Amino acid sequence: MESDTELPLFPLDLVLLPHRRIPLHIFEERYKLMINESMENQTEFGMVWGTDDDFHDTGCAARVVHLINRFSDGRMNIVIEGTRRFRVVKRQEIHSYMSAIIQELDDDDEPYNLDLGDRLKALYEEALKLSLGWPAMKPSAMELGHLSYIVSANLSMPLNEQQALLENTSVNARLSTVANALEKALVSLREIKRRTGGNGHLA
Q: What residues does 77 pair with on adjacent strands?
């Protein structure tokens, strides 16, 4: 995705982060058209948190990774994946759906805090051992710039905190935010593990 390009926009009451996959049910005519064009041309569209008339100007580009099913009236169930962040420069009204001129949002040029990265990886590995349903990725193989987004996908962070994470251009700041959130989540996970005694039943 190049800078200063046009991107279809899809405002919704959710925050999409890079590398996160989410299911969507597409039923509005304008979005049926948008998604069909995206799949046919293998192009991206932009997800922004909000409504047509009031949305955040920092969003995340997305691509369709799976068409689950298509109904006779054109409705679809799909899975999308966040790719890259962008900032809306100018809203466009030239299609049946909304679009915008966007600029890609890059991270700051800063040295990574490797100790902070190791801390988050260790916390994530512990969470994987305690949890069911978390993706069994190897955090050691993750690039630190992506790690905060991948881990945060498993945390029930409020939308405003997810949006702040999306807008944050400091990798180290994102790692710290997600590590702190994961530490809080681990308190509950450890307690559940203690009470079940590892057998899946609460004591």
A: 25, 69
